[in-house]
Specification:
The protein is α+β, with helices and mostly antiparallel strands. The chain has 2 domains: 4-131, Beta Polymerase, domain 2 (2-Layer Sandwich); 154-287, Up-down Bundle (Four Helix Bundle (Hemerythrin (Met), subunit A)). It is 46% helix and 17% strand. The chain contains 11 helices and 6 strands. The chain has helices at residues 4-17, 52-57, 106-113, 120-123, 154-168, 170-176, 180-206, 220-223, 226-233, 241-266, 272-287, and strands at residues 21-27, 43-49, 68-78, 84-93, 98-105, 126-131. It has a 6-stranded mixed beta sheet with strand order 3-4-5-2-1-6. A hairpin with a 4-residue loop joins β4 and β5. It is elongated and about 75 Å long. This is Aminoglycoside adenylyltransferase.
Length: 296
């Protein structure tokens, strides 16, 4: 796999040869000192050009950076900046390098430079790799805090708790019925909805609400206490039904701990009565005789 130095050089050298490419910025995790990166981390690149359609309508230029095995295209309208349109080309190359290109018109960079607050895509971090016309000189410095966890209101907190304990009730019924696929679906729905949100709030509270644990918890291992992370691992299971029952109880137990800790740090009241009622219900379903006539 190419090194970061090699990939960056290719990105810049190609731009130098393109008259219509006036600036190049590297954004995302590779431009964020607070991020955890490795050889598989994406390269988020902004090409600032005088003619966006030349690069949006003809994608042949993308092959200059390697053999493409799969790609994704999109476009975005910046309503807050005179409805300027940008184009993205997300490219996975055969040697493992992934480059996410964004094509910006020069006018958009000029408008962004006039604002007091950077858009999140730049505020998370950026590095100027090339600037032929000094277009980036007036850009504000990034805070690297664009995606930090926000402190929830009491209403937001209670809503997450209530919805977690409501959706939990689907899982024991599915397990009792031997409906593994649906049980798995509901567990992942709970995990990546309410459970993940509570984990983020727990981490946020522990770090004074100035932390970003990564997309869908990709950096949880760095921010959770080792013992707590081991408990998180136990919430995953395979296809064995007993394993899934154990994982469900682990999710419930860990959510309870996180919820209580977050509520303490924010001065809120965790609805333990709701927790206890649903927990009792789950235990009763697990004990229910499998020969009981199904009526639902």
């Amino acid at each position: 796999m190419r090194t970061e130095t090699e990939v960056t050089k290719e990105i810049v050298e190609w731009a130098k040869e393109q008259e219509k490419v006036r600036a190049v910025l590297l954004t995302g995790s590779r431009a964020n000192p607070r991020a955890f990166t490795d050889i598989l981390s994406d390269y988020d690149v902004i090409y600032v050009v005088t003619d966006v359609l030349e690069y949006a309508d003809d994608d042949s230029w993308i092959s200059n950076f390697g053999e493409v095995i799969t790609s994704f295209k999109d476009e975005f309208i910046w309503k807050e900046h005179d409805n300027k349109k940008t184009y993205t080309r997300l490219m996975q190359y055969s040697d493992g390098v992934r480059i996410d290109f964004s094509i910006w018109p020069v006018e958009l960079l000029e408008l962004v430079s006039e604002t007091e607050i950077l858009p999140d895509s730049l505020d998370i971090g950026y590095k100027v790799l090339l600037d032929k016309d000094r277009l980036t000189e007036r850009l504000k410095s990034p805070t690297h805090r664009a995606y930090d966890i926000s402190q929830p209101t009491e209403e937001e907190f209670l809503t997450q708790v209530k919805e977690f304990w409501w959706d939990v009730t689907y899982v024991p019924k599915a397990l009792w019925r031997d409906e593994l696929y649906f049980a798995k679906y509901m567990m992942e729905h709970i995990r990546f909805g309410y459970f993940e949100k509570m984990l983020n709030w727990y981490i946020g509270a522990k770090h004074n609400w100035s932390i970003n644990p990564g997309k869908h918890g990709q950096w949880y291992e760095h921010y959770l206490e080792p013992e707590l992370y081991k408990k998180l691992e136990k919430t995953f299971s395979g296809s064995d039904f007993n394993e899934n029952w154990d994982a469900l109880f682990q999710v419930m137990k860990l959510f309870r701990y996180l919820g209580v800790e977050v509520s303490k740090s924010l001065g809120y009241t965790y609805p333990m009565h709701l927790d206890e009622r649903v927990s009792k219900y789950v235990v009763e379903i697990k004990k229910l005789n499998k020969n009981t006539t199904r009526e639902s």
